[in-house]
């Protein structure tokens, strides 16, 4: 069996060699998952709920271990990594309530009783990216399991370690064998086989729009269900009537969190022209104040990029003649370090249109509300965004006009496990998290029971 090297991006040291699943391995796993799912769906709802709570408890007991593993594998600052592991526990805890609450409907009709059942799909394939390995995996596997499905999960090649560990913790917690299997390997092998395997009834894909498009096209051959969480180029719209100090102080954290490797990164800061100069004066010290360094240190706010290949991709957006306004610091020496970088390009520049997925932000001025909205929407993406204004009517108008799935007014929050998350336009299809996510792992079955005349 072939292996893949897993590298620590802060030190460039080899962490582990991970065995790569081949196509036959996927087929075996799907067969096991199919058998396990039938047993799982037959369990009493309270038993499935208890199993998910036990899995949540196992994650809770290993938050520090999972966090340290993510620091080593992905270079996430330790504070972020602990939050991520705790978030997985919370997602499991939240969806552990599902099995006992997944009720259908009773619909009034003539001549009988009409009821709907939320039937599980069967085996669900989850394909995750490298930027938030644990959290994104849990958004797929927790509601899928809760709705009575089995899950096969393929982590990204560069960052499989925490996901592998979650698979072990699920087994230790007593989840039935075969119900939740983590299959490390290549997208072109494991991911593609999920798409073509007839017994995988749904694909939850998070990653680039390019690969997501391909997954959707492949899934069409079997009318396979898909949820897609894809790229983003989100706007942080700063109006002249907002708390400008706060908008500038928080803007770096709206884009440089996880070194900008965040689908929700507010990577286009749009500033009303009347306050543009003042905003830039305030932004500079805020960007230079971002603490970039050893991800194991509690005070670190930004770690390295995930890999050398990704570093090269990010660096290509900042050539020597790039319109750099100012930059923050980054360590030298080993590790894929890239300093927080602020660009002031023209509106049609590549850096304004393409997802960079690194600590590079563009700042553009706009004239009035209509211009700001048009600029925010001038992208094929529509995942996230922020609006800074103290005018309530403007906040309402603009938040309804921006074509995006997740907006925050006067903050940069995007993800809560109890609210829906997903993209407009080419940022995706379907929604994860929130109260309705389990329904996207079910088929609605309608049954009419005729009543005989007395
Ligand atoms: P990617 O598309 O290269 O890979 C994502 C996953 O797909 C990986 O596991 C990869 O192995 C697999 N894959 C590759 N080729 C495949 C194929 N032919 N068939 C099936 N699977 C295949 O993305 P990435 O570089 O890992 O992640 C970065 C991207 O993910 C960015 O565009 C980012 O915006 C996006 N993302 C989106 C969200 C969201 O919720 N919308 C969240 C995180 C990341």
Automatic annotation (TrEMBL):
Assigned keywords, A-Z: Oxidoreductase
Residue positions of the active site: 229
GO molecular function: oxidoreductase activity, acting on the aldehyde or oxo group of donors, NAD or NADP as acceptor
Location of the Aldehyde dehydrogenase domain: 3-447
Matching SUPFAM superfamilies: ALDH-like
PANTHER family with a match to the protein in the record: ALDEHYDE DEHYDROGENASE-RELATED (PTHR11699)
Family: Belongs to the aldehyde dehydrogenase family.
The name this protein goes by in its record: Aldehyde dehydrogenase
């Amino acid at each position: 069996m072939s292996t893949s090297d897993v590298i620590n991006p802060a030190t460039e040291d080899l962490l582990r060699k991970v065995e790569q699943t081949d196509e036959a391995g996927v087929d075996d796993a799907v067969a096991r998952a199919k058998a396990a799912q039938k047993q799982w769906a037959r369990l009493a709802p309270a038993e499935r709920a208890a199993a998910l709570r036990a899995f949540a408890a196992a994650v809770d007991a290993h938050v520090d271990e999972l966090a340290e593993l993510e620091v080593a594998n992905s270079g996430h600052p330790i504070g972020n990594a602990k939050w991520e592991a705790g978030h997985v526990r919370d997602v499991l805890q939240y969806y552990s309530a599902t099995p006992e609450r997944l009720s259908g409907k009773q619909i009034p009709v003539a001549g009988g009783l009409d009821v709907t059942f939320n039937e599980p799909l069967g085996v669900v394939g989850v394909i995750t990216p490298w930027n938030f390995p644990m959290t994104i995996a849990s958004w797929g596997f927790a509601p899928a399991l809760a709705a009575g499905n089995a899950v096969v999960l393929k982590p990204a090649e560069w960052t499989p370690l925490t996901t592998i560990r979650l698979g072990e913790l699920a087994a230790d917690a007593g989840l039935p064998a075969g119900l939740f299997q983590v299959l490390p390997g290549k997208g072109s092998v494991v991911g593609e086989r999920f798409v073509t395997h007839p017994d995988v009834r749904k694909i939850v894909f998070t990653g680039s729009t390019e690969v997501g498009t391909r997954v959707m096209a492949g899934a069409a051959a079997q009318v396979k269900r898909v949820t897609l969480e894809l790229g983003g180029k989100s706007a942080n719209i700063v109006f002249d009537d907002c708390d400008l100090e706060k908008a500038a102080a928080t803007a770096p954290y709206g884009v440089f969190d996880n070194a900008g490797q965040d689908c929700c990164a507010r990577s286009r800061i749009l500033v009303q022209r009347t306050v543009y100069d003042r905003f830039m004066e305030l932004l500079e010290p805020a960007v230079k104040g971002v603490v970039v360094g050893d991800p194991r240190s509690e005070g670190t706010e930004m770690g390295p990029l995930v890999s050398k290949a990704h570093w090269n991709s990010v660096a290509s957006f900042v050539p020597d003649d790039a319109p750099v306004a100012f930059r923050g610091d980054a360590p030298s020496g080993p590790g894929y370090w890239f300093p927080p970088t602020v660009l002031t390009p023209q509106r049609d520049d590549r850096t304004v249109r393409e997802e960079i997925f690194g600590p590079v932000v563009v700042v553009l001025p706009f004239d009035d509300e209509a211009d700001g909205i048009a600029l925010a929407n001038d992208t094929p993406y529509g995942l996230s965004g922020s609006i800074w204004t103290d005018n309530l009517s403007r906040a309402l108008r603009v938040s309804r006009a921006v074509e995006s799935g997740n907006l925050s007014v006067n903050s940069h929050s995007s993800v809560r496990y109890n609210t829906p998350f997903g993209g407009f336009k080419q940022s995706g299809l379907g929604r994860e998290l929130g109260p309705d996510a389990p329904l996207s792992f079910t088929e609605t079955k309608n049954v009419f029971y005729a009543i005989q005349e007395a």
